[in-house]
Structure formats: structure tokens, C-alpha cells
Q: What sequence folds into this?
């Protein structure tokens, strides 16, 4: 079946450190891949996405590349800030029978950045 | 401003007392869905709707009902809430649900935190 696995948190970093949050997926067909971010007390908002193999999504200094050969979509940022502290969700959207597409989420990774 | 709104944001209730959480979007989206978020489990889909009067079960539908009488609204109904429905609930909408709709971004509401005593 379709599933998303992401590294467990919490991830604790100092400001300006390099960030990697691993995400791997299992899917049939050609899913789209997403990273959503949830800041404290807020809903989810899209951080970046990639809709086909080898695409790179980027936003606010974050990047992730859709790697079909390794079924991965790891999130990276070169220099994190305190304001990046949040929960990050990896997700895929895949086609299901019945003609609709469904978003499947990983468990989420909490990031805490300290000054 | 394009947005998904939910009400209420916080709710404390008792077992068995029917409640409704409202969801509304102003983007003319066809597809709407409800998720619950629980620690260590991420978000799981409760129900979804592909358009007006078209709804279907997601992964965890037990104990919930929905309706889609208008395109913009998608309320979540708990007929007889139980403590295991204590959770954080999110409504989401997106432009399309079929074919290349999988490339579309889903827009989420701010969440409703529910405590069932």
C-alpha cells in the first residue's frame, strides 16, 4: 500500500546548523510529494512540493528532491533559524480507485532550534 | 483572502453529547476532507468529499458523519462523542481530486482541538 515514513523527532539544533529530515515513501503509480509545516498553534501550510521524479521543490531556504530510485524526499536547509521551530510533515498524494487522489502523511518530525 | 475556516477552535464536551464542527472555504474548491491529528500517527483522513452531495469514508470514519450540501461548507458531525475522539481536527480543501489533481496543494484550516470527557 501507500505509506510515508519520516525520521522520528524531536530534532534539536543550534541556530545556523544544517538540517536534514529524512522521508521515504511507498507508492504505486506516480505520486506527488509534499512537505507541510505546522507552526505552534497553527494549521498546516505547504512548504514545498515536487510532482515528478528528479524535481526539486524549494521555499524559504528549504529544499527537497524527488528521488524515485531511492523513493525518498529528504528535507534540507543549510542554516536553520529559531523561527524554523515547528513540526514538519512529509506527505504523498497518490491516485486511488474511484478516481480520487488522497494525501497520506508521515508521523511528523518536531524541530527545535535554539539560539 | 483565500482561506479555510473552522469553528470552534477549541471545544470541551462530555461523552454522548452531539456536536458539529463547521468548515468553510472561499476558494471554490471541489475537494474537501477532514483529518484528525494524533501524536505519533500524523494526520489520518476521516471523510472526504469530491463535490456537492458526494462524500465517502477515509481511513478512520467510525463515529463521524459529514454532509456536503453546498460547495463551500463541509461540517463534521460527532453524533455521540467518546473519549477516544479527543484529538486535533483539520479541515482541508483542494482544487481537484482526480487525475492531475494529485499535484494540487491542499489548504488547511487552523484546526479544532476537541476534548471529550
A:
Amino acid at each position: 500500500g501507500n505509506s510515508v515514513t519520516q525520521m522520528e523527532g524531536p530534532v534539536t539544533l543550534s541556530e545556523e546548523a544544517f538540517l536534514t529530515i529524512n522521508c521515504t515513501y511507498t507508492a504505486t503509480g506516480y505520486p506527488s510529494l509534499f512537505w507541510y509545516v505546522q507552526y505552534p498553534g497553527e494549521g498546516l501550510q505547504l512548504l514545498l512540493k515536487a510532482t515528478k521524479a528528479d524535481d526539486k521543490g524549494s521555499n524559504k531556504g528549504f529544499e527537497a528532491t524527488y528521488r524515485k530510485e531511492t523513493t525518498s524526499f529528504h528535507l534540507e536547509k543549510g542554516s536553520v533559524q529559531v523561527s524554523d521551530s515547528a513540526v514538519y510533515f512529509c506527505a504523498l498524494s497518490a491516485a486511488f480507485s474511484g478516481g480520487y487522489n488522497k494525501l497520506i502523511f508521515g508521523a511528523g518530525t518536531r524541530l527545535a532550534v535554539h539560539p | 483572502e483565500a482561506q479555510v475556516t473552522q469553528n470552534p477552535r477549541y471545544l470541551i464536551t462530555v461523552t454522548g453529547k452531539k456536536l458539529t464542527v463547521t468548515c468553510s472555504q472561499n476558494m471554490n474548491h471541489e475537494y474537501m476532507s477532514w483529518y484528525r491529528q494524533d501524536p505519533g500517527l500524523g494526520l489520518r483522513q476521516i471523510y472526504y468529499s469530491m463535490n456537492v452531495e458526494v462524500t465517502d469514508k477515509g481511513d478512520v470514519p467510525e463515529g463521524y458523519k459529514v454532509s456536503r450540501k453546498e460547495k463551500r461548507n463541509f461540517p463534521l458531525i460527532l453524533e455521540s462523542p467518546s473519549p477516544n475522539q479527543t484529538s486535533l481536527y483539520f479541515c482541508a480543501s483542494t482544487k481537484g481530486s482526480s487525475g492531475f489533481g494529485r499535484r494540487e496543494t491542499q489548504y488547511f484550516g487552523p484546526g479544532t482541538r476537541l476534548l471529550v470527557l
